[in-house]
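Morning - manganese (II) ion inputs below, output right after.
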Amino acid sequence: QVNEAEAVVFNIPSYACQRRTALDNHNTVLTFVSQDALSLLAENAELSDEDGRGVAFRRAAAVLKALPEPVTGMTQLRGLPCLGGHSLRVIKDILEDGASGEVELTKESERFKALKVLTGIFGVGVKTAERWIREQIHSLQQLQDSGQTLNRAQQAGLEHYDDLNQPVTKAEADAIGEIVREAVMSVLPGAQITVIGGFRRGKLTGHDVDFLVTHPEEGREVGLMPKVVSWLESQFSALQGFLLYQKTTRNSYLESKDGPARPASNMDRFERCFSIFKLPEEETRGTKQTETLTENTPEDTCSLAANWQVKGGEQMKPAGHKAWRAVRVDLVVSPISQFAFALLGWTGSKLFERELRRWAGHEKAMSLSSHALYDNKQSRYLRATSEEEIFAHLGLDYIPPSERNA
Ligand code: GTP
Ligand code: MN
Ligand code: MN
């Protein structure tokens, strides 16, 4: 009995939003490797349309991230939340053999590799990737040869595949920020622009750059995005603007209709723009990374790059020396009255957000979205002008963005 009690070394609260998760918390080889292994199994589940399993592995990985000390034995994991039998088995294998057979098999499976390559194309989701795989399309080359019809997003995604699969650096994010600031200020002076997503959490790289725009005078922000897009499209050069792709959506939020009646979900209804920026190289010279994290073979990328170099009318420039690079950018516009909720909802991490909503619903009988917080017991909205106030409404200690890296 005494030994058992002593064995429980870590006291980790069960919801990720109750914990502080800094970026560098995986302080041992074991937790780092296991966390990585569990994240890979989560990814595999998500790519197989098994979201429930995916979340379970994400939660387990996040618990390892939050451990304050090295793990040396399985007994230390006793009593920890979110570690199910499957996750514990994987950790045990890594602890005892240095690797998990299941993870290694998954990593090497043709299906997993194909799903990663295909969903790595901007605009391609799991459903589409699965359909292509059923039609024997496993690589970018095979996709290109197949003559499949691609929508506008997918065409842009394929065309800029290499750029978009290369992590965005902080320097590039800052350069994009300058361009966005200039665009927004030109069309709506007095607007406020905030970096959200991973870069707000202090990450040094990201898969995109996310911005939240608001204006201190409620209503002034309405219809901002189409004007910003026009500005961006008219700049950079006489021939081409800053945008390689953009899809703008209008705000469709109605408090009475969408608030408490709807389940709190990840989907929100802000005016927004999903885009691909054309970032001039000189903006970030010297900081460009050469490392690519794509899964496709070198032959794949070479032939594709060569192909599109010609297609894009860039045949005068030697391959790999174009003067710009494609970067995914998300722009979200919020009315000032919803700003704190939008900020909290778009800062992430994805798991942290999911856990906040689960905490609100299960523990507090409240519905949290990126627009509002509704108290089901009091049947009323709880106002907030800062993230701190929202945490307080939820009965949670305030966690700063840099510690939301669950
Ligand atoms: P990297 O971009 O990979 O560095 O990570 P990230 O944390 O920035 O992820 P991402 O850009 O995908 O999303 C940023 C945050 O916005 C996350 O917390 C997401 O949950 C949130 N988010 C992304 N898409 C949506 C959406 O459609 N609606 C809402 N409400 N939130 C979203
Ligand atoms: Mn992001
Ligand atoms: Mn994003």
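Note: Strands lie at 168-169, 192-196, 205-206, 209-214, 243-249, 271-280, 324-333, 366-368, 373-375, 380-381.

O.
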